[in-house]
Amino acid sequence: MRKALVAFLTLPLLALGAQPAVAHGHGHGKTLRAAAPRDLRIGSAVAGGGHHVDQPYPDPFTYDRPYRKVLAREFNSVSPENQMKWEFIHPERNRYNFGPADAIVRFARANGQVVRGHTLLWHSQNPAWLNEGTFTKAELRSILKSHIFTVVGHYRGQIQQWDVANEIFNENGEYRQENIFIAELGPGIVADAFRWAHQADPKAQLFLNDYGVEWPGVKVDAYESLAKQLLAQRVPLHGFASQAHLSMRYGAPDQLAGVLQRFDDLGLHTAITELDVRMDLPASGVPTAEQLTTQASYYKTVLDACLAVDGCNSFTIWGFTDKYSWVPVFFPSEGAATIMWDDFAKKPAYYTLRDTLRAARR
Ligand code: 9MR
Question: Which region is the signal sequence (predicted)?
């Protein structure tokens, strides 16, 4: 968020009547996107694929119209939750499945939203043909290269930011050996992935993305030295992102601004890409008023961190409604992690985010 630039741009935009928020019928800061400073995108994951496949409802993005209405109204950035992951978009070695991700990209264009592409180099959610196949190193390298050229090329010009490398370090700051590309080809493959993505779409901002980087520590140190090394080698790295999957068990991330600032100091963009705040649910299953207040304060801590750092240009939550959250599926005693209830009624966290955005916009 560059404040001087915002002030400079505001007047001419108003004079031209060119406020996109007004064009979408939700001006005056009534929605998150309308409340936000102009150089900060407010995003949500788009529910579909992944854990949703085993739930007793049809694909949310495809079939839930009220859900799509809220998604269009509140956000000006969207992230396919699963629809651009390898297992989804590249289910067989010689077959790509672009339909569901194309639908999201079309929706985004129709609603004045940008798209965050997720993700190209990851240890998880890879198709069986890749996990179980036997390939020479040369074959594996060419599989990754052609996947990146095909997928990034398919969306060329339509993706604001790509999570090129996702979760490549473990908690000790070592390269994850579960990542078959890193295990087989060595960590140098990370630089290649960035180079290929940049060739395929020179305008997309290319990010490192991970969880567990909300507090300083060895994992953040590992990313900082990787970022320095990549930049020194003139690898097209443009950003560092904190996913920010938080639990109220562990306290609010009160040092996050400092972490983001270290990457801003390297000249990188920063982003919050998957924020949610889960809590231990009481026996009733319904959070207490106090829990909701605490949750709102965690959301605010993360937004404040982004607002405090000049180059933090994207703030995304990992779904906006508890109805479709991944949290209860993966953490059975925890839940209520998003900013809206199942019926899209707003929680205190929603209002806190909106108020904080409004205050920052002025
Ligand atoms: O929300 C996603 C869920 O639908 C999938 O089943 C799950 C499988 O790993 O992945 C979830 O999204 C993850 C994201 O892609 C990367 N960071 C952690 C997210 C939560 O697990």
Answer: 1-23
